[in-house]
Write a structure and sequence with these properties.
Blueprint: H1 6-19, H2 28-55, H3 63-71, H4 79-89, H5 91-104, E1 112-113, E2 127-128, H6 135-150, H7 159-182
Antiparallel strand pairs: 1-2
Helix pairs in contact: 1-2, 2-3, 2-7, 3-6, 4-5, 4-7, 5-7
Length: 189
């Protein structure tokens, strides 16, 4: 897409680099995931503002509209295609993806990430991730983990929460590294 500007590049790169810092303890993945998400947020705002605005019917778009703009993209070089290529071409990515889906089998809502807001703590509002080829589910599952983490519903001393955050961090890192390199965000400029 390349709608970026110098300020966007600096912000995206700096948060991405912060997310890549060495892990000293298992709960460092929480900080890393947050930093990676901020990088991703800056990226999708830079790249998808106009499309997200259209999806929001001309209103100021909220985060889910930006994500919808990403997973609903229908070009030959879409993010969906890049995601599928990672599954097919990267043994590490596909292994982590299968492992992540296995982790979800043991959650309170099997095959889902629960929405942990007080009024929604049941499986009716959980984000499904049952089809590893479903890019929309992948993005929205990452987003649900982000929401639970940002709003204080992931515990840094819970082995299950650490493993879920760590695995999604690894998946999102590999996906974003691919995107950022292809679109010039990680090139020295």
């Amino acid at each position: 897409m390349n709608n970026y500007n110098r300020k966007s590049i600096r912000i995206i790169k700096s948060w991405y680099k912060l997310a890549q810092k060495p892990v000293k303890s298992p709960n460092d993945y929480f900080d890393r995931f947050i930093s990676l998400w901020i990088s991703f947020n800056a990226f999708f705002v830079a790249e998808f503002h106009e499309k997200a605005r259209k999806l929001a019917k001309g209103n100021d778009p909220w985060e889910k509209k930006y994500l919808e703009a990403i997973y609903s993209e229908n070009s030959e070089n879409s993010y969906y295609n890049r995601y599928i290529n990672l599954i097919e071409d990267s043994k590490i990515f596909s292994k982590n993806l299968y492992y992540f889906m296995k982790l979800l089998e043991d959650t309170m809502c099997p095959g889902h990430i629960a929405d942990m807001r007080r009024e929604r703590r049941n499986c009716d509002y959980a984000q499904e991730f049952s089809d590893l080829n479903n890019f929309e589910q992948f993005i929205l599952t990452a987003y649900q983990i982000r929401c639970n983490l940002f709003h204080g519903n992931k515990h840094p001393e819970s082995d299950d929460d650490i493993e879920i955050v760590k695995t999604m961090f690894n998946l999102l890192t590999e996906f974003l590294t691919e995107i950022y390199k292809e679109e010039g965000y990680l090139n020295d400029q």
